[in-house]
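dumping this here so i dont lose it
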């Protein structure tokens, strides 16, 4: 049962923390580094602060090592933020970025999958799931990283929100209120990012944000499939939904500005909404 406290902690607090961090980064650094790059550097930090703050308010501070594999989503956040900040601040070479993504995704997926890979009921299919999830996530991050260089910061956050919000609902309908709430926290950070970046103007936000969001988003979907009743086809549709923005660039290449942005969001919502519809059908049938 959802309470007012859940709404405040899981939605309003992440919005306030994310928006505040982005605004502070812009005001503090815009004169030194320019308005565009100031929020590029604040982007990963804002996402991490908003997500960690909302998670902590909802569920408290997890133990280390965690008793529940899902708690790694919180514990991994500082390291992901650091990786995102180094990516944004240091202008690291492409080779280093590829290695960092290729290392962070498997490590995160391994920690989330460890109870299944290390349990008494070990099944080789769990190893196949881990390997498949890792490869998909690495490819997803690489594809979305390329997209981030082609859309505005506000549009990128809107695209991610249009994937994360339906994912939260699907996870809830798949039998896990906790995962649904965590997905809601992640969605709230991107809702705030879209509003703030639209209000403050152009910003080079994407480079560090995609790694942080991607691992958290992929980890949620993997956890939903492994520890709840998330159907594999729904997980794949939710993962594919943000990638539909690339399809919009191909289909609507002759458009610019609002028509292109609207086409991107529409395609993302169609694919993510299909997962929601399937989850609602399954929930009603059960």
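and the seq i came up w/
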């Amino acid at each position: 049962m959802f309470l007012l406290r859940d709404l405040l902690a899981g939605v309003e607090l992440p919005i306030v923390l994310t928006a505040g961090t982005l605004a502070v980064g812009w005001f503090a650094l815009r004169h030194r580094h320019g308005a565009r790059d100031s929020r590029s550097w604040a982007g990963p930090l804002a996402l991490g602060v908003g997500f960690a703050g909302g998670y902590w308010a909802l569920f408290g501070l997890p133990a280390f090592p965690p008793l529940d594999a899902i708690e790694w989503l919180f514990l991994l956040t500082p390291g992901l933020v650091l990786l995102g900040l180094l990516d944004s601040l240091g202008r690291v070479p492409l080779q280093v970025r590829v290695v960092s993504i290729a290392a962070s995704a498997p490590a995160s997926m391994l920690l989330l999958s460890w109870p299944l890979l290390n349990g008494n009921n070990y099944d080789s299919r769990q190893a196949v799931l881990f390997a498949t999830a890792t490869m998909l996530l690495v490819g997803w991050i690489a594809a979305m990283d390329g997209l981030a260089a082609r859309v505005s910061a506000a549009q990128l956050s809107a695209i991610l929100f249009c994937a994360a919000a339906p994912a939260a609902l699907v996870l809830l309908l798949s039998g896990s209120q906790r995962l649904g709430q965590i997905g809601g926290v992640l969605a709230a950070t991107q809702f705030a990012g879209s509003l703030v970046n639209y209000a403050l103007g152009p910003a080079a936000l994407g480079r560090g944000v995609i790694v942080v969001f991607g691992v958290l988003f992929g980890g949620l979907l993997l956890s939903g499939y492994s520890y709840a009743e998330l159907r594999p086809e729904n997980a794949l549709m939710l993962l594919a939904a943000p990638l539909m923005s690339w399809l919009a660039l191909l289909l609507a290449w002759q458009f610019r500005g609002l028509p292109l942005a609207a086409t991107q969001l529409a395609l993302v919502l169609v694919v993510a909404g299909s997962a929601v519809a399937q989850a609602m059908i399954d929930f009603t049938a059960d």
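The radius of gyration is 18 Å.
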